[in-house]
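Consider this:
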Amino acid sequence: MTGDSRAFLYCAACAASLAALFDFFDCVRFKVIKAAAVDFLMDTVWWITAAVVIGICLWESNSFSLRMYEAVGAAIGLISYRLILHRALKCLFCFVLGIIVKIFCIIFKIIKRILKILLTPALFLYKILIRSVINSRQGGKR
């Protein structure tokens, strides 16, 4: 395999992987996080990752020189990902993230119930002590 064909394939694979990462972040936005600040942070992380991945791809394939066939390879990689794998991977990402979110919700409910059971006696004693302190300050009036 020549260096040019290897660079072409690297750029196609990098573009497809960046599109898959974008789909993953999109599913995270849809299933887990809905805050604007976190959305901005995820976009920033994606752009930094994209710059690093493209830089590494260009460095490894052609000593950081950008040629027209590499841009064409990236475009072909992106288009082929969108046509072939986009729906399947996005559904897979959303399904897996949905399961993970449900598992964490169940774990948090269990922890909440355990804490409620463990803290009920302490809360009861706290209320008894507060009522007795308030009653002693009011002179025993109810």
Summary: The longest helix spans residues 86-137. The chain has a mean pLDDT of 88. The CA atoms of residues 17 and 32 lie 22 Å apart. The two ends are 92 Å apart (CA to CA).
